[in-house]
Specification:
By secondary structure, this protein is α/β, with parallel strands linked by helices. The protein has a single domain, classed as Aldolase class I (TIM Barrel, Alpha-Beta Barrel), CATH 3.20.20. The chain has 8 helices and 8 strands. It has helices at 16-25, 48-57, 71-81, 96-105, 150-165, 182-188, 197-200, 205-223, and strands spanning 3-6, 30-36, 61-67, 85-89, 109-114, 132-136, 171-174, 192-195. Strands 1-8-7-6-5-4-3-2 form an 8-stranded parallel beta sheet. Helix 5 links the parallel strand 6 (132-136) and strand 7. Helix 2 runs parallel beside helix 3 and helix 6 (182-188) crosses helix 8. It is globular, with a radius of gyration of 16 Å. The termini are close together. The mean pLDDT is 96.
Length: 224
């Protein structure tokens, strides 16, 4: 089943609880939380206290994406704050296999992320360890960027590897997803679609979420 994950990076933080409640009413089951440290990426966002507040405010799965230089140090902190799953960048991890296993041992699902400039082959030795794989379809650091089409080629490569090796990990994509390109994203093999501006920068975020979910459902039916 395809899931649309609203990215709170694009939300109105003065109305965050209200917006999340409205999305849950619309059927949202997963929220994407971008954590940036101003070092690994040129932006600074949120810390564990925000995740802790989110955990108290929602039953949705909290998908925490660590765009930080020291994921080994901070992944357990975010898990303790309430993250259900934590993804780390291949480019930031010196010992990626160990980091993914550590996240699992802390009680969360472990995801691995690759930037637009990182080939899928860099993940070959951890695909059986990762619970999910996130393909960046923009360069990480800021919301509202244009989708990089080459990300779809990577998704297809991952889907092929998954099938060849009999694995079950979901493929997630993050960056530039819109109503216009969502069908192509789903057709390539994506199960989890992160959407920020396309949902929160609209007049009615719950309606935008519902429309994207409908488009994804229709695209999945065609793919099957």
């Amino acid at each position: 089943m395809v899931e649309i994950l609203p990215s709170i990076l694009s939300a109105n933080f003065a109305r965050l609880g209200e917006q999340i409640a409205a999305l849950e009413t619309a059927g949202c089951r997963m929220l994407h939380v971008d954590v940036m440290d101003g070092h690994f990426v040129p932006n600074l966002t949120i810390g564990p206290p925000v995740v802790e507040s989110l955990r108290k405010a929602t039953r949705a799965i909290l998908d925490v994406h660590l765009m930080i230089e020291d994921p080994d140090k901070y992944a357990p902190v975010f898990i303790a704050a309430g993250a259900d799953q934590v993804s780390v960048h291949q480019e930031a991890c010196k010992h990626l296999d160990r980091t993914l296993r550590m996240i699992r041992s802390e009680g969360a699902k472990a995801g691995v992320v690759i930037n637009p400039g990182t080939p899928v082959a860099m993940l070959d030795d951890v695909l059986d360890v990762a619970d999910y794989v996130l393909v960046m379809s923009v360069n990480p650091g800021f919301g509202g960027q244009q989708f990089i089409p080459n990300a779809l080629r990577k998704v297809r490569q991952l889907a092929a590897r998954r099938k060849e090796r009999g694995l079950q990990f979901p493929i997630e994509i993050d960056g530039g997803a819109t109503k216009e390109n969502l069908g192509k994203i789903i057709d390539a093999g994506v199960e989890w679609v992160v959407a920020g501006s396309s949902i929160f920068h609209t007049v009615n975020p719950p309606a935008a979420f519902e429309e994207m979910r409908r488009i994804a459902h229709d695209a999945t039916a065609v793919r099957v």
